[in-house]
Amino acid sequence: MAPIARIIFCPIITGTENIPRSGRVILASNHLSFIDSMVIPLVTPRRVQYLAKSTYFTGTGFKGYLTRTWFESIGAVGIERGAGQAAQDALDAGRSILESDSAFAIYPEGTRSLDGRLYKGRTGVAWLALTTGAVVVPVGLIGTQEIQPVGTRIPRVRKITVNFGEPIDVSRHGPATSGRARRQATDEIMAAIHKLSGQELAGRYNESPRPGLHGLADKVFPRERV
Description:
seven-stranded mixed sheet; Plipid/glycerol_acylTrfase
């Protein structure tokens, strides 16, 4: 798929030399469109995995087979959404992927930005990095919302840019059990994403009833005022 996608969409890709070709790495990206989860695996020079809702893998019939095969082919791992044990299971799934020395993609905002602004990052990304020792490569996506705007099913041919930033080692912020360390590490990552994407800052969380993996550390661990 990658060569075909590059011919059709002619994406501008910068900074691929910043992605370690082996070892534990988290690709932390802004999130503008459903298509983002296909763009990142197709332009990254190593296999990338990420978490997706389990219903993509449980469909029946020919349509269910095609959906399951597609998501498996681009490195998706099915999880149940929710709080409590489901939240912990999702964090553990991300941790397991990284501990196998794999590349793992995550959206710290937790859900898509519907107005194009960059929202405050949730601390799941920092928990994963601090727990596993993975480096974080910030990713700035530009224009993906034009390929598949919210509410559309058929992608359109539009120019996009994918910028990979320099790897970030967040270990200096402290242990994963520290709320302050998770917050400071997340803010550093979001500042790097902002530099790459050039988005307007929203200055608040992108509230969603289902913040996904990226907000799960906020649920699993008590909030701490910093």
